[in-house]
Amino acid sequence: MVLLAGSALAQPAGGIEGAGQAAVDPLDLTGRTFGGLRLPLGPVAGVVEFAASHAWVWVEQDGGVTTQRLLLEDGVVVTLGSTRLEAKRAVVWIERLGGEPGAASTHQVFVYFDGVGSLAADAGTSLRASRLSVDGVVMTGRPVRLEVDLAEQGRPSDAFVREAERELTRYLRELVWGSPVALEEVAPVEPAPEVGLGTPGRYPPPPAEGEWLRSAPVVADAGDELFAKDGTITFDPGQIALVAGGTGRSLLLTDGVSVLYRDARSTRQLQMRAERAVVFLSEGTVAELGQFRPEDLEGIYLEGDVQVTDGQYTLRGPRVYYDVAHDRALIVDAVFWTYDQRLRMPLYVRAEALRQESAEQFLATKATVANTRFARPHMSIGAQTVTVDRYTRRDGTTGNSVDARGLTARAGSVPFLYWPVWVGDPERFPLRNFEMSSSSRTGPVWRTAWDVHTLLGLEAPEGLTSEFLFDYYNQRGFAVGTNTRWANEQMKGGVFGYLLFDDEGKDLTTSGRRLDVMGETRSMLLAENRWRFNQAWSLTTELAYVSDPRLVQALFPEIAEEGRELTTRARVERTDENSQLALEAKSSLNDFLVNNWLLESRGYSVDKLPEISYVRTLDDLLSEWSPGLLTLNSEYRLGQLAMNFSDPEVQELGFTSRSLSEAAFGIDPAESIADSLRAQGLRENGVYRLDTRHEASMALDAGPVRVNPFMVGRVTAYDNDFEGYSPDEDDNARMWGAAGVRFATTLQRVDNTIDSDFFDLHRVRHIIEPGVTVWHAGSTVDRVDLPVYDDAVESLAEGTMVRAGVDQTWQTKRGGPGRWRDVDVFKLRAEYVWASDDADRESPIGRWFEDRPELSSVGEFLDVEGLWQVSDPVGVTGRVVYDAGDTHQPAYSTFGVLVDHGYGLRSSAGQRFVNALDSTVVYYNLQYQLTEKYRASFGANYDTTVDDFERISATITRSYPNLTVGLAYSYNKITNESSVGFVLSPRGLPGGFGLRTGDQNTRGSDLGG
Q1: Fewest CB atoms less than 10 Å from the CB: which of 48, 519, 591, 943?
Q2: Distance between terminal CA atoms of the chain?
């Protein structure tokens, strides 16, 4: 609580005012209103003004006294007296203490702030605070002012409002009791039912609001008429005079004029303010200011700082004429603004002349469009004419339809793009993205993305977005493409296509070598769709075509490095509570592999031509006698499978030297991976395979110990004995079986004596979950004698394995009185795995899968992993896999720490070690919100083995009201890529404008990721 007594805001008057206030029961105070109390502060002269991007407005009644309430969000500015405060959010209470409309009045105000960034009074003081309460009594001759882009009616259901009311309750009780009151003694305020929410800007004005809160208007919800016939118009002038002339009678209003139009059929209100006005009366109209009907007036002329608003739009200009008889208006040197709820972005239009054709349509000439106020617009769009129509979208949000002719996009006052016509919603501005980039991988590139539907003048169906891509590479030439996405309740998918004409550039390959491209036309097409017919049935389809093996590596490396397998397939499946039936056909349209993980492991993909599968889980075999005692999991699959080898010679992939090709694939540069696989006896001929797996499991309790014996049987049959691959094995079928038992229990202990502020420990619960698994498997055909079509079918572990482990969790209470919550402060998982000598080892890093031990990476190893939440802002994690069988060294280890330093600074650091690669990498990352406008980030990976940096990157950005600009630098030693760039991205558009260097193209990553 900050009481600005002693500052310019308020001076204490001593004691609680009001004769009857001593009788107030403090326990009756709820924080909704001031509870009939007067703040013990002397009034100060000044203003009461509020500004924000978004506001909720409502009133609370208490014994006939009205308290005006506000919730302000985004860019909050509050001025009380001569004190100006800025914050992220604020809850406001305003109660008028005295004064007549139009005269000086006194208000008591209480404001509860979130994230106060500055406080500047006459004394020049400043501070920052997460939470701040301010109260004051202000005497002002001006109306209370509220300026927002979007106003909504009704008390919002927001926890911050209830938190603020709890704080006001505490403060008021202190005033009554005259002694401190702890916040814990104030019961949390129960959420109130929502009142009138759901329609932004529409609400009936409270009784006091029309008198002194001058910017809480209501927007129309019936018809497009500017002045409906059954509406009423009232005037509140400083001075009035009746003028009679040859053309009729008029009213001359001076010394400040307020005009209010109410639509009787709806809740729409239109409020106008000006220094003076002339009202042209219709013939026979009685000159009274009580209430006019629109038919009583010919027109209204307002002059001098004219402001017009109905809650969803605001107009300003020096002169405005309302042609009431013809239901239209004209504003010169106008500024119009409104708010788009979906984009959460304002729309501003400045024009030499603006005509209002209806309640929802505006036509501007020689206009400038921007999404920030025009004091200093940073990016804007100039147009000869602009028509703005307000409309309601299908989701209920209010949008703007703009018809602009002769557009010129400007950064400040500098034009950089011309476009003849644009019709549509601002979120559908045709240019979705523009960037200039340059890196050692691609060279200079200009990339653009255009909205297809806007270019064609079509309305995009709900959930569909389609972009036309037009790019130019200095070293490669022109490229075109499309990036289309769709999503609805039944279907979700997308298409990414790209065509590069006459490419004569150089491709950077994974080996680091650069290879020339000899004027080839290159292309790729990726598509996917999932169609859910109903709750049970669905169809998934994918298509992938790439013209050559290096295109993805050269232009879209993230797909090759991180994406899932690029394939062409169709899969229809039926899924219910515990079963799934699926039919899948899968193949490849290329004779090469694109994904690095396939190239570096198998060297082939697998086609299914087709395969049908049926899976059932947790069938309760004794449900009638002993539910849950014996369960069965079953799998069946039958299909034709074929391997699809990578045919290009590895030198075409960039492995041009013998040392590179042998290190990567064990072959010469002039050989292909397909040649190597064929030499091993593998063939691309189709093979029929039948596979079935059954696992029976029991759940028994031996006191506190859960005993889970299980048995697995599997039969896999082929129409081929793979003689070329395993000449000593002639079986066409493999029978594989396993049996095991799991022992598990849970122990816990609660220690209420632990209470440490230093470690933030308050009461500790220790949970211990030990477990032991003993497992043995045998097979009629060893897995090394079977070609692997699916790891989960052919590559099954054999032999004996024992796993002993314990999971431990320490829980505590954190948060403080009234805010206690349970926190897992420390978690430790440790397991030891032993495998017999007849278990084939496939990986140098051991790994155990408890649900299916046959899929484990067998070996003798110790795996320990821990997580320590030191405090809310500090976390430490680490893991070590120790090879206890062969090397007797850590096979893998990682350690990291994440720290939220506060004040917008977050950092993380750690190290990773892989023994098989003799690689130790130390990393550090930092993100710093220097101010509300400036943000910086830095990252680095340092390889201790080569004693050099593997990667360095840094960015700094500056946010403006409608755009973000920044500088970026990155260097990748592995691929020898470096870049320096400038980033410029406007807000509110789905894409963005940009000038960037070295930024990898991420197009199509959703389809390949």
Answers
A1: 519
A2: 51
The pLDDT score that the predictor gives to residue 392 is 65
Q: Map 761-810 to HEC letters.
A: EEEEEEEEEEEEEEEEEEECCCHHHCCCCCCCCCCCCCEEEEEEEEEEEE
Burial class for 726, CB neighbours closer than 10 Å (0-12, 13-18, 19+) = middle
Q: Two tokens at 848?
A: 């155990």
Tokens of 897: 């720490």
Does residue 120 register a pLDDT over 50?
Answer: no
Tokens for 882?
């120790």
For the question of whether the overall pTM of this predicted structure is more than 0.90, the answer is no
- At 393, phi and psi to the nearest 5? -75, 175
Helix (H, G, I), strand (E, B) or coil at 598: helix
What residues pair up with 863 in beta bridges, in sequence order? 831, 881
| 247-283 per-position pLDDT tens digit | 677 888 888 888 888 876 666 788 888 888 888 888 7
Give yes or no for a contact between 17 and 38, defined as CB atoms under 8 angstroms apart: yes
- pLDDT of amino acid 278: 85
Query: Which residues lie across from 242 on neighbouring strands?
Result: 251
| DSSP 8-state class, residue 672 | B
Phi, psi (degrees; rounded to nearest 5) at 866? -140, 150
Strand positions, DSSP E, 578-723? 579-587, 604-620, 630-645, 687-698, 700-702, 705-718
Specify which residues 637 forms β-bridges with: 613, 691
Render pLDDT for 620-657 as a digit per residue (tens, 0 to 9).
998 889 888 999 999 999 999 999 999 998 888 888 88
Widest pairwise Cα distance in the chain: 118
Beta strands in 504-654, from DSSP E residues, in sequence order: 506-508, 514-516, 520-532, 537-546, 568-575, 579-587, 604-620, 630-645
Distances from the Cα of 771 to the Cαs of 621, 738, 774, 777, 807, in angstroms? Answer: 26, 19, 10, 20, 8
Greater confidence (505 vs 372) lies with 505
Q: 3-state class of 212 per DSSP?
A: helix
User: Hey, which bits of 83-186 come out as E strands?
Assistant: 83-98, 105-116, 118-120, 129-140, 145-153
Distance CA 210, CA 260 (A): 9
| C-alpha to C-alpha distance for 497 and 245, rounded to whole angstroms | 72
At residue 405, what is the residue type?
A: R
Residues with Cβ within 8 Å of residue 260, at least 6 apart in sequence: 210, 233, 234, 236, 269, 270, 271, 272
Cα separation, 312 vs 390, whole angstroms: 9
Distance CA 73, CA 344 (A): 12
The Cα 10–Cα 134 span in angstroms is: 10
- Lookup: tokens for 162: 């209830």
SS3 of 269-330: the string is EEEEEECEEEEEECCCCCCCCCCECHHHEEEEEEEEEEEEECCCEEEEEEEEEEECCCCEEE
- C-alpha 531/C-alpha 366 separation (Å) is 48
Instruction: Supply φ then ψ for residue 810, to 5 degrees.
Output: -110, 120
Identify any residues that bridge with 892 across adjacent strands, giving them in sequence order.
Answer: 881, 914
pLDDT in tens, 198-253: 333 323 333 333 333 433 333 333 346 777 777 888 888 878 877 776 567 788 88
Which tokens sit at 449? 């993305």
- SS3 string of 383-400? EEEEEEEEEECCCCCEEE
Do residues 738 and 854 make contact, with C-beta atoms less than 8 angstroms apart? yes
Whole-number CA gyration radius for the chain: 36
- What would the two tokens of residue 724 be? 């070329």
Tokens of 818: 């009234």
Distance CA 30, CA 826 (A): 40
How far does CA 216 lie from the centroid of its chain?
31
Burial class (CB in 10 A: 0-12, 13-18, 19+), 725: middle
CA distances from 830 to 416, 765, 771 (A): 61, 19, 10
Q: What's CA 320's distance to the chain center, in Å? A: 42
